[in-house]
Amino acid sequence: MKLPRVDNENPPRVLVIGDLMLDRYLWGTCDRVSPEAPVQVVKVVEETQALGGCGNVLANLAGLGARPQVIALVGRDDAAAQLQKLLDAIVPERRGIIVDEARPTTVKTRLVAARHQIVRFDTESTAPCSAASAAQLLELAEEMIPSSEVVVLSDYGKGLVTDEVAHAVIACCRRHKVQVLVDPKGHRYEKYRGASVLTPNRKEAAQATGSSLATREQISAAGAKLCRELDLDACLITLSEDGMALFTPEGDTWLPTVAREVFDVTGAGDTVIAALALGISLNMSLPEACEFANRAAGVVVGKVGAASVTLDEIDHAYGASRAIGPGDKIVELAELERKLALYRSEGRKIVFTNGCFDLLHAGHVQYLAAAAAMGDVLIVGLNSDESVRRLKGEGRPLNHELDRATILAGLHAVSYVVLFGEDTPLALIERIVPDVLVKGGDYEPDQIVGADVVRRAGGNVEVVPLMEGRSTTALVQRARKDVRSR
Length: 486
Description:
The chain is of the alpha/beta class. Strand 17 (436-440), helix 16 (451-456) and strand 18 form a beta-alpha-beta unit. It contains 17 helices and 18 strands. Strands 5-4-1-8-9-10-11-12-13 form a nine-stranded mixed sheet, sandwiched between helices. It has a five-stranded parallel sheet with strand order 16-15-14-17-18. It has a four-stranded mixed sheet with strand order 3-2-6-7.
C-alpha cells in the first residue's frame, strides 16, 4: 500500500467535534506489596499530561500532517488551562473551545508501572450539555463545517454529543456535502443516522445490534444491519487482534491486524478515525483509507497510553514488515535521519562505515558482515564519483555511483546506503552520530575520521582487519596488466 502524502503548504482541514479531556499519567516503579493491604506499592517518578478524548484524535491528525480544528466543551478550571496549552501546539484557532462554568473539565488519571496500567480514576460530568452550550456549539458548526474536508464526531459519552447535537451536525455535513465520520458510544445509535461512516469496536457494535459478534457471519450481519437501519454510507468495525472489517453496499472488506507488539490499546480507535479522516480528505478510496487506518492502529498499540502516530512511523513499520529491495535502501541524508530517529526510539544500535567500494570483492563482503554484527542497523557512507576521482585519480571509479550503491544495497548485511561528495565522511558522521564507527584495515582508532565525534557522544570506534590479498586497487592493476599483455 502506498502511504498518503500531505502537502505541507496546504494541509487538509479536518474538523473534530466531541468530548475533550485531559489525560494525566503517573509513571512509577513497583517492586513490593503494601503491608497495610494486599495491594502493590507504586513509587511515582514522573507525571505527564496529554490530550484525551477527541483531543487524541486532534493529536493524531496533527501528527499525520492534517490541519485539525475543534469544537469542544471544557469547564473553567486548571485542567482546562492545561488542555489549552496542549492544544496551542496543534490547533491554530481557539474559537471552537466552549467554556461551561457549571461543569468540570473531564480528567482521566492513569497510574502506570512497568508499562502496564495499574488503575485509572476519572473526574467528570456525563450530564447532557446545557441548552446554551449546545446552541453555541451548533452555531460554530454551521460556520466551520463548510470549509472542512472531513468532519469527525467523537462521542465519549461525556454529554456534548447529545441527540440534538448529533442530528444537527450530521444534517449540516450532508447539506454541505462534507463527509462525517462518527466514533460512537453506548448502544443507542439512532442519533448517528445519516452519518457517512460509523466506526464502532466489536463490543460497541455487539451492544448496538444485540449480537455476540463471535463469528465472521455475525460480524457481517451486524455491519449490514447498522448500514441499513442507520442509512450509513459505510460501517467500519474494529476487531482488536482480529483487525477490522469494512461494510458498504458494494461488499465487505476484511483487514487483518498488522500490529507487531501490543502494549496498550488505549486510544487506538482515535488513531483509526484520524487516519481514516486523513485518507478520505486526500481522496483515497474508502478501502484504501481503511487499510491506511489499520496500519496506523498497528503502530499505535505498540505505545503506552493514548498515543498518536506519524506518517514516518507508519512508513517505518510498514517497511519493516515487507521485503526491502536494493532501491529502498539507497536514501538521501534527510530521509536517513528520520529513519534513524525511529530506530533509536526502539533502542537499536546504529553502526556506520564508509568507503568507495568501486569493485566489490570478498574482502568487502566479509568486512561489511563483521561491521553489521556490531549493532542492529548498518549504514554505509559511499563516496560519490567526483569524490572517488579526487581520491583515486583519473580513470576511477570504474563503476558509476548508483551502480556501486545498488550492489551494496543488495547485501543482506547493509541496511542503508547514503552518498556523500566530500573527501572524508566527517560531515556525514556529525549528522548521523552513530553508536559504532567501523573502519577496515590497519588504522589506529584515533586515526579514523570522526572518531572524536562518536566518542564524545558515548559511542565506540572499531577496526576490522581486511582479508589478505583482497583489494580493489590490486584488482584494477591486475585487469589492466592482463589487457596490456594481450
